[in-house]
Amino acid sequence: MSEEVAAEILTTHILELARDGRRLDGRGPDDYREISVEPGFVTTADGSALVRFGDTAVLCGVKLEPGKPFPDTPNAGVLTTNAELVPLSSPTFEPGPPHPRAIEVSRVVDRSIRAAETIDLKKLCVTPGEKCWTCFVDIHVLDHAGNLIDAAQLAALTALTHATLPAKRFGIAESDSPLEVNHYPVEVTFCRLGDAIVVDPSRDEERAAQGRITVATDEQGNVVAMQKGLIGAFSPDDLRDVVERAFKHGERMRAIARGGGT
Fold it and tell me: Which sign does the torsion angle of CA 18, 23, 28, 31 carry?
């Protein structure tokens, strides 16, 4: 049996299960895989977290260094988000230029952090027009078993929440201080499998999906960002449903990001 035929059979089976409200791994349509978070995973970073959604593993490290503000925002610090899909994490990832999926992950995570004003960039200004803090958020996908966006966002949020501003190290202040986090955006991703819409898609479900949508919410009851993927459509009723579900899942994951653990 060829790989294409095997993939087609698997897709058909996944869609048949979804039609009956079931999933390949035994979860219900609105069930996440087991989530674990380890803040402070990288001791040399100013903030870090290893996040696992089932077999999906994403590591995020935060580094804060003095830099120069952009000319159009002289009173604000700089935030830069980057995602790397480690070739060992999936047979489909190869060394070389950034993979399109890595670009998507970094942009979607960056968008939610900025839109929610997770950190106040103005407070990262040291001397207007001359010196500011540059916050690097580096995301590394270690094992791709589906739903990279949610895992990457939770890793980034946890790393920022537990980050330290190394002011003493760079001679900017007499002591270091925690990085101030104002808001806690969480992204929740759904995919369409026929008429069913399931949360936290596995890799096999992503291959079978007709559409994908990510909803980012914050602790104040705001939808701060959305991202649509694949070609399948979502009706207004579908959007209302996934937004309601995203808020429910967001509350649990915000608590995880703040406290670490599961």
Answer: negative
Residue 150 structure tokens: 């949610």
Please work out, in degrees rounded to the nearest 5, the angle formed at the alpha carbon of residue 122 by the alpha carbons of 116 and 125: 140
The pTM score is 0.93
C-alpha span between 181 and 25 (Å, rounded): 36
Question: Is-contact 185 115, C-beta < 8 A?
Answer: yes
Where in the sequence is the domain holding 47, given as residue range(s)? 31-259
pLDDT at res. 95: 65
Contact 53, 141 (CB under 8 A): no
Q: Number of folded domains in the chain?
A: 1
Residue 60 main-chain phi, psi, to 5 deg: -125, 135
CATH number (domain holding residue 190) = 3.30.230.70
What is the model's pLDDT at position 2?
72
